[in-house]
Specification:
The chain has about 350 residues and is of the alpha/beta class. The protein folds into two domains: about 180 residues; about 140 residues, no CATH class. About 35% of the residues lie in helices and about 20% in strands. A six-stranded mixed β-sheet has the order 2-12-11-1-10-9, with helices on both faces. Strands 6-7-3-8 form a four-stranded antiparallel β-sheet.
Length: about 350
């Protein structure tokens, strides 16, 4: 395999976390960090660091050779997995279920508040949404990622923020902005009223799961038509179709590969669980912190990163050392760290952090 890319799609660091290594207190022992995060530590020390403009999604589209998709809204790309023919003109968003925490004066969103619903809950919410909002201009469809695609037949100009970024920032600052922001804010208020006391939420509480406060709309953009599918690939992109593999459940990743003419594969429990691929292949793994935090309620972000290091980052670097791959790229927090064969010999390099 020529290159392994590991994207931690929901790792964004607040300023307080950036004072230490990925949320570790600045006074923590360097040895303790190396023991818990050997892959991160190696990548930060020896990798070539570069800031990513526009986030990991547009970066990944360009990595795949699809510059035509890199400037589109994430929802427009993700919608490829739920609709073969998208009405145009129309606007689409990713609608992520979130649980908001009520404070004394305002609502808050934390990393555990970003929810991934089961297929059963997705279907039930979608059916009830159609019944409740049937006369409105908005329609939703569920996705395997645990999110929805929200579509409006109107062309709306609204700037939105993905929930993973809102969870480490000011929620008020993350609300919709732009010419038509009032439309989405009004819809958001209606969604909160619809979901408050909803029977599905009551069932989630009884199961010990967080209720859905609202659907967070983000990544919006004009819907695209079939001209963006494989016919618009560059020659380089066409040649990579059979050799580039994607693993994960992220809706943008799945839509990107569908538009590229391939299919995204389930994320393995361990990177080493994958069978050997021909040397020309590249592979991207899109992993998340939030599911680990849901599965382990007492874990910190640092402990979740320790698990991702064990499952993916350290095994990828082991393959690099063994000569199985030529390079490993770690993408998180709007940064990339690229490690190539021979970089570990540059012992004078000092540790860097993903900020």
């Amino acid at each position: 395999m020529r290159e392994i890319v590991i994207v931690i799609s929901d790792l964004y660091l607040a300023s307080a976390e950036a004072d230490g290594l990925l949320g570790v207190d600045a006074n923590s022992s360097g040895a303790a960090v190396r023991d818990a995060l050997p892959g991160f530590e190696h990548a930060a020390r020896f990798g070539r660091k570069e800031r990513i403009e526009g986030g990991w999604r547009s970066w990944l589209a360009r990595w795949l050779g699809r510059d035509d998709l890199a400037t589109l809204g994430p929802a427009a790309v993700a919608a490829a997995i739920v609709e073969e023919v998208v009405p145009t003109p129309s606007t689409v968003w990713i609608a992520t279920p979130v649980h908001l925490i009520a404070g004394l004066t305002r609502l808050h969103l934390d990393r555990r508040g970003i929810l991934r619903l089961s297929a059963e809950d997705l279907a039930s919410f979608a059916t009830d949404f159609a019944r409740t909002f049937g006369e409105s201009e908005f329609k939703i469809k569920s996705m395997d990622s645990g999110d929805f695609i929200m579509r409006s037949l109107a062309t709306l100009d609204v700037a939105t923020t993905e929930p993973a970024r809102a969870a480490v920032g000011d929620l008020e600052v993350s609300l919709p902005k732009g010419r038509d922001a009032a439309v989405l804010k009004r819809l958001g208020a209606e969604l909160e009223m619809w979901l408050h006391g909803h029977p599905i939420n009551e069932a989630r509480r009884r199961r010990g799961e967080l209720p859905v406060s609202t659907l967070w709309l983000w990544g919006g953009g004009a819907a695209i038509d079939g001209s963006y599918r494989t016919a618009r690939q560059s020659p380089a992109a066409s040649s990579s179709l059979s050799s580039d593999l994607a693993f994960g459940s992220d809706p943008y990743l799945a839509g990107l590969w569908r538009l590229h003419g391939g299919e995204c594969r389930p994320l393995p429990s361990l990177l080493s669980d994958l069978p050997t691929h021909p040397p020309a292949h590249r592979a991207v793994f899109v992993v998340e912190i939030a599911p680990l935090l849901h599965a382990n309620p007492h874990w910190t972000v640092f402990e979740a990163l320790t698990e991702l290091d064990h499952r993916f980052i350290s095994p990828a670097l082991a393959e690099l050392r063994q000569g199985v791959v030529a390079s490993v790229v770690l993408v998180a927090n709007d940064m990339q760290l690229r490690i190539q064969r021979g970089d570990r010999l540059k012992f004078w390099r000092r540790k860097a952090v993903l900020v």
